[in-house]
Design brief:
Elements (H helix, E strand, L loop, with lengths): L2 H48 L8 E6 L2 E6 L12 E2 L3 E6 L11 H4 L8 E8 L6 H4 L13 E2 L5 E4 L9 E8 L2 E9 L2 H4 L5 E7 L3 E7 L7 H15 L5
Parallel strand pairs: 1-3
Antiparallel strand pairs: 1-2, 4-5, 5-11, 6-7, 7-8, 8-9, 9-10, 10-11
């Protein structure tokens, strides 16, 4: 064996050893990256699939004015509001008639891919008027609508607003309630209502200086007694302080 051959042998072994170490680190890094992508992909994929919803049923205590509202996180519409603390208002959504929040079983309803529109939108906010919508009918709304209305479902009469009322593309749904002020809701009408999941709106006074505004699909007007009672009972059950 020549002197050159003897000298070359150990050098080749050192180079091969160094190369193998580098290859090992490359494969190790790729394996770690693969695990990270897998874990991150599952988390990110879930966040995309939830599309802003939460199936967390942990209850949160939100203070609005002098009221404490206790609601599960999966009923709270916005992620930034899903924590305990003080807020200027609280926006919720829930499925009717179950009156529950988002879950995997309710996904189609919340994504509006089910056969019926069933989602209600509720907002607790500081009271701005001395009367709720039913109480405003006689002193305010009655002078802003056409006296003759069209019959609707379940005793509802649908009144067009006058041109000077300022309520464009809306109708007023009114139903008499023996011994009580009438049920009153404003609903978008015509093309304005077609793109809305909940084109009807009603409000009621609750708690200590709170107004509860709820919006609902027009298809539920025919169930207005049951709907109104369910909303009032659910909202009252969330209020832990106030009158």
């Amino acid at each position: 064996m020549s002197e050159a051959s003897v000298a070359d042998g150990p050098e080749l072994k050192v180079i091969n050893s160094s190369l193998m170490v580098k290859v090992f680190y490359v494969f190790a890094a790729l394996a770690l990256l693969s695990v990270a992508i897998s874990v991150g992909g599952k988390w990110f994929g879930r966040s995309i699939a939830m599309a802003g919803y939460s199936d967390d049923t942990t209850t949160r205590e939100i203070v609005v004015g002098n009221n404490v509202i206790v609601a599960p996180a999966n009923m709270i519409r916005f992620d930034r509001a899903r924590h305990d603390g003080v807020a200027p208002r609280l926006d919720l959504y829930m499925r009717y008639p179950q009156m529950d929040g988002y879950s995997d079983a309710a996904r189609d309803d919340f994504n509006n891919t089910g056969p019926d529109k069933t989602i209600l939108f509720l907002s607790f906010e500081p009271q701005m008027m001395s009367r709720d919508m039913s109480g405003r009918f006689q002193p305010i709304y009655s002078s802003l609508i056409e006296s003759t209305g069209k019959p609707g479902p379940a005793g509802i009469v649908l009144h067009d607003f006058t041109q000077k009322s300022g309520y464009l593309d809306e109708v007023l749904a009114v139903a008499e309630r023996p011994g009580k002020e009438p049920f009153v809701a404003r609903c978008l009408d015509g093309p304005a209502a077609e793109g809305s999941l909940a084109p009807c709106e009603r409000d009621m006074l609750m708690g200590d200086g709170l107004s509860l505004v709820y919006r609902f699909p027009r298809e539920l007007l025919g169930e207005w007694p049951r709907l109104d009672a369910a909303v009032a009972a659910t909202a009252a059950g969330m209020l832990k302080t106030g009158r």
